[in-house]
Amino acid sequence: MSTRAAVALTQASWRTAKSYRFSFVLSFVSLAVTIVPVYFVANALQQFMAPVISSEGRDYFGFVLIGTAMLTLVSAALSSFASAVSGGLSSGFFEALLVTPTSLGPLLAGQTGYAFVWAAARAILLVGVGAFLGVDLRWLRLPEAMLVTVSVLRLTTNSATMDAAMAARRDASTVGTSYRTGTGR
């Protein structure tokens, strides 16, 4: 039941985002358009960065590309929990979810699942555009890269969960204060 609830909440977020078609398409287009100037800037800096990265690789754009993809994933991990909880508290949706028989873990997974899937799609698109532009990626190192990525995301997600708990406490105390004083939000 709990996995089904997380998937259902992720699908609901997907349907909501898909209904804003222009924003949906513009997000992918802007990502593809943004990476092209980065490619040219990284190539311009290649001669200065080559001695610095010589023991790690040959192509500076590859470092920038992978760093940008990781930043996409980490920023989603940092912001999705707090925004899901805070947004749900302000709209009353989160409280409605808490009275369902689903435990808190699947609820948070469902509320943030779309953000993680979207960030993963953007990261894959970044790497795909980079491969199209000629980045030399070591595909045999993919299992190690995935292990590092999952470890970083797990640590980031843990700190983001604490941030979401603090946001929930702050929002709940603000709502409680405004109800007691009669000032509203």
Question: Any chance you could write out the topology, listing elements then pairs?
Answer:
Blueprint lengths: L1 H18 L1 H33 L6 H32 L1 H6 L5 H29 L9 H40 L4
Helix pairs in contact: 1-5, 2-3, 2-5, 3-5, 3-6
Describe this structure in words.
With 185 residues, the chain is mainly α. The two termini are 36 Å apart. It has one domain. The chain contains 6 helices and no strands. The chain has helices spanning 2-19, 21-53, 60-91, 93-98, 104-132, 142-181. The model is unreliable at 175-185 (pLDDT under 50). Helix 1 packs across helix 5 (104-132), helix 2 crosses helix 5 and helix 3 (60-91) packs parallel to helix 6.
How much of the sequence lies in strands comes to: under 5%
Note the gap between the termini.
Answer: 36 Å
**Number of E strands:** 0
Q: What structural class do the secondary elements suggest?
A: mainly alpha
Query: Domains counted in the coordinates: how many?
Result: 1
Q: Identify the overall geometry.
A: elongated
Q: What's the tally of helices?
A: 6
- In terms of quaternary structure, the protein is single chain
Q: Report the sheet with the most strands, covering strand number, pairing sense and barrel closure.
A: none
Order of helices and strands: HHHHHH
Low-pLDDT stretches are: 175-185
User: Could you report the average pLDDT, rounded to the nearest whole number?
Assistant: 78
Nearest-angstrom radius of gyration? Answer: 20 Å
